[in-house]
Write a structure and sequence with these properties.
Length: 96
């Protein structure tokens, strides 16, 4: 079964689920005009499988669909956006 990414709004984080287990997450703070990504983590047993990239891509795509901007305080999210120009427009210009 392929990994699934869900928005766990109760915990303010996107989670990547592998075989029914949370394999990683991207914490966020939802503000009126933007989503602040604060921390991304993949559990050690799941590292090296490209899950963090999949997780962040999904989180950014969902954020784009909401019309909100992104403030990448998390280093991983910031690097992901830097490497993927298709997400540069999402970054909140005030946070740059």
């Amino acid at each position: 079964m392929p990994p699934d990414v869900v928005d766990n709004t109760g915990k303010s984080r996107f989670e990547i689920i592998v075989d029914g287990q949370v394999a990683g997450f991207a914490d966020y703070l939802l503000l009126p005009t933007k989503v602040v990504f604060t921390h991304t983590e993949v559990l050690p047993a799941y590292e090296g499988k490209g899950l963090a990239g999949r997780l962040v891509k999904h989180a950014l795509d969902v954020t784009r669909d909401t019309g909100l901007k992104v403030e990448p305080r998390c280093e991983y999210v910031a690097r992901y956006i830097q490497r993927h120009p298709e997400y540069h427009d999402l970054v909140d210009s005030v946070a740059r």
